[in-house]
Amino acid sequence: MRIACVHIPRFAVEAERLRRKDIGARLVLIGEGTVLDCSLGAEAMKVSRGMRMSEAIGLCPRATVLPPDTPYYERLFNEALDLLETLSPHVQSAEPGTAFVALDGLQSPEARVAEDIIAGLHRRLSLMPSVGLATGKFTARVAATNTRPGTVRAIVKGEESAFLAPLPVDHLPAADAMRWRLGMLGIGSIGEFARLPTGAVQAQFGSEGVRCWDLARGIDKEPLVARLREETVVRRLQMPALAVTLDAILIGIEKLVHATYAVLPGGRWVRKAVIRGSFDGGGSWELAVPFREALSDPRNAWFAIKTAIARHPPERPLEELEVELIGLSGESGKQASMFEGKGKLWRQVEEAVRQLEAQQSDAVLGKVIALDPSSRIPERRAALADFESK
Amino acid sequence: MPPATRRLRSLNTPRRVTVEAGSDGRPVSVALSGRRFAIEDHRETWRIDDEWWRPKLVSRLYWRVVTEDGRSLDLYRDLVSGDWFRQAYGA
């Protein structure tokens, strides 16, 4: 299957540059405790993703440090995916900044589709991707990450292993332990790894090694799994004044929840709500509230949402609010609890307790109850209650 | 048959231990089951102050230590009473 891998390098940094003209060409670090993403200049100063932020700042002290705004990056990337779906019906999202597009069955030649992808993302979203074309996702991804943004690298069918051979083994989807061992064995390139006998690879690295070995030889059977488009309903509210207090935010969200339910098609139930807000001065807040069972009454939904917000309130004043209802269904179903006598396992436990009590009248059986699991004081987190069999 | 009265017992209650501390307050050795074990490594220390509005406030300085026989222990010094306790804090 011919696949195009669309790769937008340093996606989070590019996303921030789109909305913050003030950072221009400055060095950028995004993250809190660790580095989520960094600009090319920071990479050149030996900063890497996952590095501790304090270490990264030490390497480039003049960099602009930004907190990650994951909801915004996801929204922007979803817009990119929507655009890709206008070119092919099968699009898979890998991680923000990387997607796979199925090319089989399209009318246009693949090179033309690749050019349309680059032109479309650049013109519509001001993003500059690189595109790798290959038979299989792995080779397409490696091709995309090894070519400059704005260009296409096509690997002809049958030439995958020749293309991969000189590249470092770091491209293989291997765990750190396997990479370390490959380094200790002096295997630096994908070609060197591909030349190892399959039995030795299996013996040393197990199934992970065999999968990497297949990929190194250009054998990639992993299918492209197109993303599912969920039916959703979204409503936004621009606050008349900056919502500083939690009360004001709650009033706004309650109005939005009722307004969003009002436009639901008749007889629809909702399984999840996502509440979003834009902070004054940039950044965003997002809270996903899955319902225990699908809800058709906005008052019940509001109760669940209000409870969730009380636990995770926004940390700064908000100027815009959004409510998205997800998982629309035609009916509701109650989720049975394993610990209320309905689960098979629980019935077995109860039977075991009855047997034990019959054999030993002074048996002491207890049930652990979570009191305050997140308490900083360990003895406040859980307690042991008497077990009461029915 | 259910018991007549329901009982609720705390789990992971702190256990008093005898600890010898250095001049800088770091635990140097701990007595476990009547035997004294030297502390070989101090992995981490953290302090919790809580329930300050109650008459019996909580103020503890925890230490995650490794003893000479390789055991990893969580110890804390109650900063109100000055006593040492052993209590698993979490992962």
What does this structure look like?
The complex is a heterodimer of chains A (390) and B (91). Chain A is α+β, with helices and mostly antiparallel strands and 390 residues long. Chain A is 39% helix and 24% strand. Chain A contains 14 helices and 14 strands. Chain A has a 5-stranded mixed β-sheet with strand order 5-6-1-7-8. In chain A, strands 9-12-10-11 form a 4-stranded antiparallel β-sheet, sandwiched between helices. The mean pLDDT of chain A is 87. With 91 residues, chain B is mainly β. Helices cover 0% and strands 56% of the residues of chain B. A 7-stranded antiparallel β-sheet of chain B has the order 2-8-7-6-5-4-3, with no helix packed on it. Chain B starts with 7 loop residues before the first strand and ends in a 5-residue tail after the last strand. The N terminus of chain B is likely disordered. Classes of the chains: A alpha+beta (390), B mainly beta (91). Chains A and B meet through strand 13 and strand 14 of A and strand 1 of B.
How much β-strand is present in the residues of chain A? 15-25%
Give the C-alpha Rg of chain B: 16 Å
N-to-C series of helices and strands of chain B: EEEEEEEE
Low-confidence regions of chain A: none
Subunit arrangement of the protein = heterodimer
Total helical segments of chain B = 0
| Percent of residues in beta strands of chain B | over 45%
- The global form of chain A is globular
Distance between the termini of chain A: 59 Å
Q: How much is the average pLDDT of chain B?
A: 87
Order of helices and strands of chain A: EHEEHHEHEEHEHEHHHHEHEEHEHHEE
